[in-house]
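Can't paste images in this forum, so I'm doing it all in text. The chain is below; anyone willing to post the predicted structure tokens underneath?
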Amino acid sequence: MSEVLPRSYAAPEPRRRVRDVVKTYVALTKPRVIELLLITTVPAMILADEGMPDPWLIVAVLVGGGLAAGGANTINCWIERDRDQVMRRTQNRPLATGAVEPTSALVFGIVLNVIAFAVLWASANLLAAGLTLSATLFYVFVYTIWLKPRSPQNIVIGGAAGAVPTLVGWAAATGSLAAPAWVMF
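Text version of the structure:
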């Protein structure tokens, strides 16, 4: 005779658990911030190419840039997890609530950046990949660790990391950085 457990004791559906885990990890990447960063990449590519670049290159650069931004945002959440617990605006972030283990989040952020670098190097060039990595390092070390806790100017100076996608787009399309790329930056 099989015993029927009350609903509260039944194991959750595996599909639902996977969906919840994916949703939690996606939240770490701050998708709204990513789309704001990537919106400048394609126009820079079009200007650099003086026309429409190969659509596959555009897709690859957007994927690589999105992965890098998501990785940087995840590392930012990892660094700020204790502060996020006390701020009303951030107290429901996955690390602040304990929905994700800190080590898992850090590894996830690093892996996203490694994949981003590989995608950009393979599909575009080393310059585009290197610029993307430099934006991540600037965002994590200069903005998050150094400026944010020390200066009200953190967003102004740290905003440089958010301007790098224009340089990445230009570099991906041309393999170099010309004066117009720096003007857009």
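Residues 5-10 have pLDDT under 50 and may be disordered. The radius of gyration is 19 Å.
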